[in-house]
Amino acid sequence: MLYKKLDESEIQFMECWYDPVCMIECLIPENIKAPHTWREQDCSLVKLRNYQFAMIDFSPLYADDDKLSKRENFQRKIGAGYIINVAARNLGKSFFAVIDAFLTLLYGEGDESCVASFDFGHLKKICTPNANLANHHPIFDLYRRKGKECVRFVGGGMEIDTILGHVLYGRNENISSPDPGTAFHSLHVKKNIYDEISYASDEGRKKMVDAMSSEGCIERLAGIPDIRLGSVLGKILRDESKKNWICNMPQYVREDWDEKAKARAIEEYDGETSPMYLLNVLGNAIEGANSMFDMARIKENSYTTKKKIKQFEVGKETFHKFDKILVVDKQPAEMSMICSDIGTTGSPSEICLFFGDNNLMKWRYNISLFMLTTQEQAKIFKWLYDKLDNCIISLDCTAGEGRSIADELEILGVPHDRIVRVMFNSKMVIGFETNDDGTIKCDDNAKPIYKFERTIDWAVLQLEKILYHGLCEVPHSEKFLREFANYFSVMTGTSKRYGTTSTDHLLQSFQCFAIARFNCEFANLNKQSEQSTFVAGF
Fold this sequence. Notes:
Blueprint: H1 8-17, H2 20-27, H3 70-81, E1 83-86, H4 93-107, E2 112-117, H5 120-136, E3 151-154, E4 157-161, E5 167-172, E6 191-195, H6 202-210, E7 218-223, E8 226-227, H7 232-238, E9 246-247, H8 259-268, H9 275-280, E10 286-287, H10 295-301, E11 303-308, E12 310-314, H11 322-325, E13 335-340, E14 349-356, E15 361-369, H12 374-388, E16 392-396, H13 400-411, E17 419-422, E18 427-432, E19 450-454, H14 455-468, E20 472-476, H15 478-485, E21 487-492, E22 495-500, H16 505-521
Parallel strand pairs: 1-7, 1-9, 2-5, 2-6, 6-7, 8-10, 11-20, 12-15, 13-16, 15-20, 16-17
Antiparallel strand pairs: 3-4, 4-5, 13-14, 14-15, 18-19, 21-22
């Protein structure tokens, strides 16, 4: 409520004060390391470049509406301030993180905010300029408490408080520690500024989310779009609800970008098509750079965001009513497949249901089973088999649990030839050995000689064929994206070993699907050999 009418000069001041563009160009020296020079006549101030307006937090422009609640008013500010600033290098992302934090101190009243990064070195890069601004910028004389240092470096972090009661925390996530993100405990911030978000850890991110205010949080995330294995950034960029707040720009938006700068960058990053050029100069998101699956090909040929996978969960508490929980419809198709890795009371089983033919299979259902015994799981598989009417069940039988379920299914009446027992630690028949003229080789008894391949290797090759050539329709699934982006292989001698930085239960279900589909496509080659096909575990 106004106690007196504002005059013209006061109105103009308020218009400038709450305009972040005006505040930046009037308060921030070009040499941000020397904020004390602001009073000097020849001090040059920051002049925003055209592309940098997209990086500014415009939330101070929003005044509270008396008709809205405190939370509703703040939600409007979140819409004006939230940003995922993942762009090429040398565009000023970290510089704007510093400016964001300083202006937050000037605007904040009785709230908390946080600047953070993944290690101390990068946190210091943001905190030191803010400490200098708070200690030496003349404008901050209005905010310092008398007789008390407003800037404190404590416990590997920083704190800056103001006479208005706002506190800006500097926190190191410390991703290399056994328990990253503990520095975020006890915070309740309304603004979170994170530099180099591509390096953030999933565990630290969860603690950061818990440290946000119940009214909401304006997040200002900055970094290059290097989507690392299991990264927080990958999950954020895949979130369709956040796509309007992604700021992704290449280096050539800079005013000083020219052919010489381009030639220098091409030479520095070993070519215009190299991953480092695409990442650091063009700002292209590189997902699963170390993954053995090409996520770009999968998204182009098989993945669709127009549909979403139907998901169900059954645990030991809900097993007694699983037939009420699972809403599964038989679909008109030449082939129906139930494919699953097998977990028991220690890990989940991921069941995937596919419908279609050899030209196109469609993934429609994902059913997760938790803490169930092999007998309980067998009952669910049998129920699904009856529901889908004579489909194929493909199970990971590498371990005893899978073999136990397969045996139980035969006892329950599922025909032996409808169960595909996938043994990833053995070899499987993939065809016939051939002569130079293309004819099939035979042994001394005139029997054809089979060609064998390690099952796990063949499953991966078949998955690449299926997903890269659009032979399977994959609806939107965060679990699918995470597990396929995080799957990798390494050579040990002449063989491959496979691993993941996340879970891989769903991916193993897809491997079972790939083997079952191959068997259907080449059924005439899938005859049992009399010789042992077992190979030692890898």
